[in-house]
Design brief:
Blueprint lengths: L6 H16 L4 H16 L1 E10 L4 E8 L3 H4 L3 E3 L3 H9 L3 E4 L9 H6 L6 E9 L2 E11 L7 H41 L10 H13 L6 E4 L6 H10 L8 E5 L5 H9 E2 L11 E2 L1 H4 L4 E5 L6 H13 L1 E3 L6 E3 L3 E6 L3 H6 L5 H7 L2 E4 L9 H16 L6 E2 L1 H9 L5 H15 L4 E2 L1 H4 L17 H19 L4 H8 L3 H10 L8
Parallel strand pairs: 7-14, 7-15, 8-11, 11-14, 16-17
Antiparallel strand pairs: 1-2, 1-6, 2-3, 4-5, 5-6, 9-10, 12-13
Helix pairs in contact: 1-2, 1-6, 2-6, 14-16, 18-19, 19-20
The chain binds adenosine-5'-triphosphate and magnesium ion (MG).
Magnesium ion binds next to helix 8.
Length: 504
Amino acid sequence: MVSAIDSEKFRTLIDINARLNSSYTDFRSLLKTIVESAARLVGAEAASLALFDAPTNALRFEIALGPRGAELQGKSVPSSEGIVGWVFQNSRPIIVNDAAHDARFSPLVSKEISYSTNSILAVPLKVKDRTEGVIELINKTSHGLFVGDDLEWVELFAVQASIAFDNAKQYERTEHELTYLQHKVQEKQGWHPLIFSSRVMQERLDLVKRVAPSDASVLILGESGVGKELIAEQLHLNSRRNKKPFIRVNCAALPENLLESELFGHVKGAFTDAISNREGRFEAADGGTIFLDEIAELPLKLQSKLLRVIQQKTFERIGSNETIKADVRIVAATNRDIEKLVQNQEFRSDLYYRLNVLPIQIPPLRERLEDIPTLAEYFLTKYARETNRGILHFSDSAMECMLSYSWPGNIRELENAVERAVLIARGTTITTDDLMIGAKPATGSERFNGKELKEAIILFKSNYIRAALEQNRWNQTETARHLKIQRTYLSRLIKELNILQSKE
Ligand SMILES: Nc1ncnc2c1ncn2[C@@H]1O[C@H](COP(=O)(O)OP(=O)(O)OP(=O)(O)O)[C@@H](O)[C@H]1O
Ligand SMILES: [Mg+2]
């Protein structure tokens, strides 16, 4: 029995319970709370939570705290290996003092992290008769050994932890399901869900909503893959034209003569292949919006025709004299430096000024870091669903790696990286290796924008060390000498900061 006089412990447990029950909306932070709380309750030097991963039949250390926690976190052991495996298989708690001499003790993990283990207390995390994982506490803080009383407290705690764990899992599942279905509905209607959390994208969307009601042309600018097409969709969806067609035309996809007919239509006999009358995309967009993607590639001849549509709101089909009225909102986009094209007379300046009445610049992904986790999680859920992978997570270092990468291909590249990672990942966690992005540093000071000091320092350290390693052809002894630090310290930093030698 838990001793009646230990009221302080009891208060701790109640306090812990309140914390557990309030963190069910964020699964990962709940896991961390569970481990921290268990360690706090009985006083342990190190603590971990390993969860069972059915596809690999392994126990994966989701959270590991303590002196060597960072090295253990993310590692997996076979589900029958060691004390943690024994607790999992037997679904029973255990205390092992003098761990190194216990037959069940597997030096596998503890050796790898070079951490001496004398006393272990481990309890199963059971949800409705199913063992989900193991909470393991290592070395009692006061240099003593774990005793039966500690075990009872941790067992009591584990019952509460497992309820919170189950709630959090169900909450996560429902939330995933709900957003997935919402997005599916949008996608079915041909729209792409616009995902973001950054302030700068919120400002762009606010701007879109302000200009949407007007019929003025809009020019969307930004690097390849930043989501210009999605902004064009939002312009349409927020306008009074949203019940009418949204017509997409890629100006770079067709040669000049075909593009002209595609845009404006033709009449029978207008040219050799014109065997019948054909309606163009401007007519198809009547009352709605036409999205002219890659507008910089529009041939000069068609530029003047487009200018007339904008100024006079009329055009003719090829080979016809009949003037057609155009009630169409024009939204154009380009990833090229269109001002330079105007200077070089490759793009008509009068058309540029007409299109540029309302320019909307979409910043590259590396300048809106807050969007990276949100977008990455969104793509993760989407592709995990599509490939029946259940719910997947990113490891902390995979997330850091995504945050410090410069994403030259922007969101398109991020989406591809996550999709590929889902296909190659083995367990339920996406690791840095699965992402296969060289973790090249971002350029310029913008990579620190909006970051907390701690985050910025980590980023700086990582880039600084990478640069030093590159200068010394990745020779660690040389690099350590230049940086005036110990070789072993350098190698630890390389590991901690996850600095990879880029393949290029
Ligand atoms: N905010 C976002 N939320 C969700 N998906 C996005 C977002 N931004 C971009 N994407 C996705 O990234 C990909 C590229 O977006 P999009 O086609 O709009 O880029 P773009 O700016 O038009 O690039 P390009 O200049 O190369 O045509 C698409 O698959 C799109 O669905
Ligand atoms: Mg595009």
